[in-house]
Amino acid sequence: MSTFIPGPHLLESPRGRDWPRLPAAPAPAREPVPPSRADVVVVGAGPAGLAMVSALWHHGVRDVVVLDRGGRPCRRFFDRIDLLGQRVLRSPYEHHPGVEGYRDCELLDFARLHWARLTPVERREVRMAQAGHRSVVPVDVFEAYCDHVTATHDVGARTWRATVREVLPGRSDVTVRTDRGTVTAQHVVLCPGEERREAPHEWWGGGAAPPGVAYWDERLPSAGERQVVVGAGLTSAHLISNALAAGREVHWVIREPGERYQCADVNSKFFRPEGRARIGNVGWDDRLGLLAQFRRASIMFEFRPLLERAEAEGRLVVHRGEAVTGVAAATGGTALVRLAGGQRVGGDCVVLALGTTPETGRGLLPEEVVGERDGWPALDERTLAYTYAPRVSAVGAAAGMVLGPAARNIDGHRVATARAADAIARSVRGGAPAASPVRAEVGAGV
């Protein structure tokens, strides 16, 4: 039996192409700070926030304020991609922040509309997607599509730069406090995405990283001739391939027994209704087990030939299956990683790619509202509203215990958006959300 392994050529696509854009409407004069009232406030303007505002637009809910640290839809998402030098997305064409159930231009439609601008390799991927097979999406195409969705649903005009400090649910509305004022709304949707996973405290005692050590989403220090990467997933693979392309020797520390190559770190069945039903039909402990089983660090098949060849040639040294006991600065401006077996792996730069953790609302909402259990918030299964604050909803990774592993993926955002937007639109049109249960039930299982 033969196994199809896509070639490394799929990792390369042009960046910075000049895509046709919709004629920009004259920007209306507006205050430099967000308005004090709105029907809905969306916290976060990443792909989940973009999908949420677009869905509300189709429901006729237009009095929406989007609050985002960057002040521009999907800015942080693409800034992170650019830091990694990433040219293609792991998500296939059917995963996009568009809206289900409406006559909207989907990502695949957008690529076909701009067929002449695609390379032969990119055109083949579009044909693969049309035939129902796995496909690779160029970042360039995805970014242009997000701009298109932003323009057609007037998302940019609804987005303000602000850092949200606190979300305080009330009986009839919700107060959102930011560094640029306060907004009161009937409903609030949290779409803050995920934050990088910090290094364990024992690695260097907590606080700022030692000199010569950086996280994957930071500007790297001067890399020199030798780079150390700690991590087992796709981010690590991008960092390693970039360093190899720059002619550096790379040491790769994988705390797991070995690399895990596959097309996605979430089984495709969880993107289908029957997969989501599998999550919904089991208890809390079984859900935790499924999340642990089907959400593990992995690397796209396309990287395998590159990394295996580099290891065979000695340009890549892989340290497999050893725990990290410490990370420290060393003499001469270098840094080193201490392994459990006693080995020390040093380099001019150590980059930590330890994954991400979902933002669950903790730190924004009162602790009793989050109702956190095993790191997950208590959400209504039908509407994704917080069980103890029905006027606040979560879309994105925080919905993992409701939607399963796919909640952290762009397609999972779209599924979550469809549930939350429908419930919010009904409420805005006149139906009040369900009353909060008694406080004593906080933390109850599913």
Automatic annotation (TrEMBL):
Signal peptide residue numbers: none
Gene3D superfamilies documented for this protein: FAD/NAD(P)-binding domain (3.50.50.60)
Region annotation Disordered: where it falls in the sequence: 1-35
Residues covered by the FAD/NAD(P)-binding domain: 39-257
Biased composition, class Pro residues, residue ranges: 23-35
Protein name per UniProt: FAD-dependent oxidoreductase
Listed PANTHER family: L-ORNITHINE N(5)-MONOOXYGENASE (PTHR38663:SF1), PTHR38663
InterPro entries named in the record: FAD/NAD-bd_sf (IPR036188), FAD/NAD-binding_dom (IPR023753)
Domain of life: Bacteria
